Structure formats: structure tokens, C-alpha cells
Amino acid sequence: MDLTLTENSEILVTLHIKGKLDGSNYEALIDEVQKLYDSGRRNLLLDMSEITFISSAGISALHRAALIFRGEKRAGQEEGWASYRAIDRDRGSGKQEHVKLFGLSERVQQTLETVGFTGLFEIFTDLDVAIASFG
Description:
By secondary structure, the chain is α/β, with parallel strands linked by helices.
């Protein structure tokens, strides 16, 4: 997996993810998201247009990114099944305000629909609309 950044504005950064997001690299995504938050960023667009595969670990990493950008301390503390119980609790909390997704392939979209993430994240197919959604 490769990660690159685009500074869109003072309030928004886009993190581009390329390759597979799975158990071998999901922690790198979480670490990068935490660094962005710690540096003062408060809005994150995850460009997933070049993700070829997402595993359960990758899904957990997306959830943890949302928790980090909500400012929740527990974001880095839950692992394994505890992480999935936390995801289940959050499904009914509405769309994330500070983390949004862009450019999902049909395969990744189906995976996120299966686990109920389409109710947790706003998902965009148009980059300009995604950027504008942060206001």
C-alpha cells in the first residue's frame, strides 16, 4: 500500500491510498491518520480510487480513522473483535462529519455495503463534490 497526501485547503487534506488495504499494512494507515490529526488537521477525505482490495483489517482501519477524527481517545485502543463491536455500535450514529470516502471500486463498495459502512461514511464519486462537501 502506498499513501500520498494532497493539501486541498486549510481545513481539508486528502489521503490517497493505493494498492491493498489489509492485515499487512492497515496500521500504517492508522498511524498516518493519527499524525494528520495530531498536526491539527480536522477534515479528511480518503481517496480510495486505487484500492484493489480491502480486508476486515482495512475496514477496521477506516473505522479507527473516523474515531480519531472525532477526537475519541479510544481510537487506538481497540483491537480484533472489540474493534468490530465498536463498529457495530457506531453504525447507527449517522454519517461521519470529518472523514469521507471517495472513488470506491465496485468491489470495495460492495464490501463496505456488506458491513454497513455506507451508513457510516459519505461516499463520493466526484472529487470536486467530495471536496466541496466539507464546506
